[in-house]
Amino acid sequence: xxxxxxxxxxxxxxxxxxxxxxxxxxxxxxxxxxxxxxxxxxxxxxxxxxxxxxxxxxxxxxxxxxxxxxxxxxxxxxxxxxxxxxxxxxxxxxxxxxxxxxxxxxxxxxxxxxxxxxxxxxxxxxxxx
Length: 129
Known about the structure:
The chain is mainly α. The chain is built from 4 helices and 2 strands; from the N terminus they run H-E-H-H-E-H. The chain has one domain. A two-stranded antiparallel ribbon has the order 1-2. The radius of gyration is 18 Å and the shape is elongated.
């Protein structure tokens, strides 16, 4: 059997795309609850998890770092952002303008991740032909 790391990048990119999708859902919930008294905005923490999984060694190649990542440990975490802070008297801390900007940023990130996954599969297809 051939031992290959061909799918390492695809696995990590897939986890990042899943986290971006989850963030999109959190942002959508924030927008839907913009007028709900006491609602606190939610966000997703994935970048810190990925950074920790990749390690901080500057003398290790990215290929080695990605190959050593246990994808099961790449679990995005939904958290309540600024739970003790509120913009308004009703206790809600959702700012619709900020949410729309974050949503657009996240959609661009998701599109980039999907394009990267597609490119990785094209690279594999080229290598097999």
